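From the methods appendix. Each design record in this collection lists the tokenized structure first, followed by the designed amino acid sequence. Records were kept in a plain field format so they could be parsed without special tools. The example shown here is representative of the layout used throughout.

RECORD:
FOLD TOKENS (119 positions):
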């Protein structure tokens, strides 16, 4: 597994972790403390804000799982697709595409895009 695949998988793992203490540890280990996260729905800064956003997604999408699609990267940039859906379901409810920048093994910035969302 490449460094880019590893960090993307850890990113997805942090979104899937249901236990708040474990999830927070994953977030603190994965993101720079001053991470900037931007997608069509939010723009936020810092691991506290990321942890709050992910906890909200856990509540909103209870019972659903995030999955990782293809990962590509070079230098300090990685891009990957992700899905959100019921475990074992054929068609995801949400499909997204994220671009991250990495420094010292931590995510510095997330640029998120939503390719498919429910009506």
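DESIGN:
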């Amino acid at each position: 597994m490449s460094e880019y695949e590893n960090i993307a998988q850890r990113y997805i793992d942090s979104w899937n972790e249901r236990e708040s203490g474990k999830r927070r540890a994953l977030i603190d280990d994965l993101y720079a403390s001053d991470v900037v996260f931007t997608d069509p729905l939010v723009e936020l800064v810092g691991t506290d804000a990321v942890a709050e956003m992910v906890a909200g997604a856990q509540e909103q999408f209870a019972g659903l799982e995030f999955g990782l699609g293809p990962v590509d990267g070079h230098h300090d940039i990685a891009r990957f697709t992700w899905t959100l859906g019921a475990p074992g379901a054929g068609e995801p409810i949400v499909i997204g595409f994220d671009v991250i920048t990495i420094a010292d093994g931590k995510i510095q910035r997330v640029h998120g895009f939503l390719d498919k969302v429910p009506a």
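APPENDIX NOTE: The CA atoms of residues 21 and 27 lie 10 Å apart.
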